[in-house]
Design goal:
This protein is an alpha/beta fold and 570 residues long. The chain is built from 23 helices and 12 strands. Strands 8-9-10-5-11-12 form a 6-stranded mixed sheet, sandwiched between helices. The site of adenosine-5'-triphosphate has 11 residues, from strand 4 and helix 16. Keywords: ATP-binding, Cell membrane, Membrane, Nucleotide-binding, Transmembrane, Transmembrane helix, Transport.
Amino acid sequence: MSRIKRSHLITAIVACLALGAAPFLLVPYPLALLTLALAYGLFAFGLDLTWGRTGVVSIGHAAFFGIGAYGSAIAIDNDIPMLVGAVGGVVLATLMAWIIGVIGLGDKTLPSTMAILTLALTLLVEQVALSWRGATGGSNGIFVPGSGVVIEYYTTALIVIIVVAVVWFWIIRGRWGRRFRAVQSNEKRAAHLGINLHATKTFSFCLSAAVASIAGATAAPVMGLVSPGVAGIILSAQVLVWLAVGGRGSIAGAFIGAGLVSIGQQYLGDAIGSWYLLVLGVVFILVVRFAPAGLTGAVRSILRRPVTESAAQGVHLDSATIRLAAPRNPSEKLVATTAAGSALEVVGVTKSYGATHVLRGVTIEVPNGEVMCLIGPNGAGKTTLLEIITGGQALNDGQIRLFDEDISTWSIHARAQAGLGMVFQIPSIFPDLTPAQNLQLASAEAKNPAPLPEVYERFLTSHSGLAVDLPLADRRALEMAMILVWNPKVILLDEPAAGLSHEESMSLARRLRTVADQTGCTLVTVEHDMEIVRELAERVVVLADGVVLVDGTMDEVSAHESVKHAYLGV
Ligand SMILES: Nc1ncnc2c1ncn2[C@@H]1O[C@H](COP(=O)(O)OP(=O)(O)OP(=O)(O)O)[C@@H](O)[C@H]1O
């Protein structure tokens, strides 16, 4: 059994023993507090599913908790089985989360939109709870006459948590878990591997709302009274503090944070009244300043656990199972990708930033299987053009065609799924994963994973150390390896030799040449180093001042008078 599994198993056994012994060791009041802390822990874990896993901050998450709590309370108040009310609350909360996610998590939506929408939701639900007196009891709330037997509430809370945990482990061991991990680590790379950011974040937000409402439904009988505050802004702020204190991205962090702070604030509230909110605020500021990864993150870094144990953060990334095609005979070319015709066409593309006209009617056709270099002086618009091709920037006019299909309005992930790979000037990898895990994520998202060229095979067995700690040349090589196993038809490279020594650059150029020869992939490379261009390019396009100046072989281009003047500085 690996160390990661052993340590998780030991933690789980210790937690189960402690929780199993609690009813025998505690008198009813502390046991009720512990039950409430477990429900709050589940609530914080729900928030973690969106904030900790895909980076979506919800500042009104108590709305979902409140909907679950009111679901249970209204059902009991009307002699309907509590389970029916709880399920109704969970369905309603999930539906609302889906609507908010669809509106607020679009690729072109600002991150602040989600903050505003979730804030509005918590205010709205609290207001509805206040005003709809017939159902909610208004400001008095609803008294929830449960059995009064604390041990029953405690057992129910434990069973609910175990069921949620089992479902969660089942989800994260599959493709959604991998996608959450990819988005959490590097959104840009995730999108360029064809992962739909909107769908992934919306799914995590819906899961998060469902778990928060389950927590609310579980907490209702323990709280005894469900009033508008359970859906309000104060509880929404508190759960953010619990999770920040406990640490995001781990189940333990959510429960420890919620347990410590909620039980602490209960005793503190008895002692100093509502001043406890001030103490909570100070704790939050101190944690954000001195332990941004929360208590669990701090403990992990003190213990200095090997990165292979902590890097996956519970997501099943078993690099031993990297999906690769069988090694290809080096002399064999992919017939499918070397068919005649255009791989990529840029047709009359214009782009302006305000009064700055960056691209002014650029037209370039790249035949299938060609290696083309795009050169030009600084500020010519080369990077902008690559971003427009991949969907990172919108064009003002013109068209981008990939294998005869107009992709001008497609999102980044749709273009990636159509076969467009991108290598960035600053390597875009999953920094907090090992190199082998980087490859695992890339190959898992591939429609047809490709064999990895021999020069990159060392990464397959690179299980220790994080990708972020690799030297620049290795990070570039790793990014290229990820792109190659993912198997695009067209690869765009933005200054792939930037920051490399002369020898590293020349070796990179030879490697790219081999890759092009072996895979039949179309390569479009922005490059400044003329030696690399000469080694690599079958064709050179010179861009200057937003227009194509010359288009031809390296010899034709370097003989051109305007190129000598505009670019070679002659
Ligand atoms: N987001 C932006 N907002 C405003 N202007 C921009 C933006 N991005 C690029 N530009 C401008 O567009 C022009 C072209 O930039 P771009 O990075 O595409 O040039 P480049 O040919 O890649 O240059 P280099 O070789 O230096 O990387 C520059 O004048 C730049 O300042």
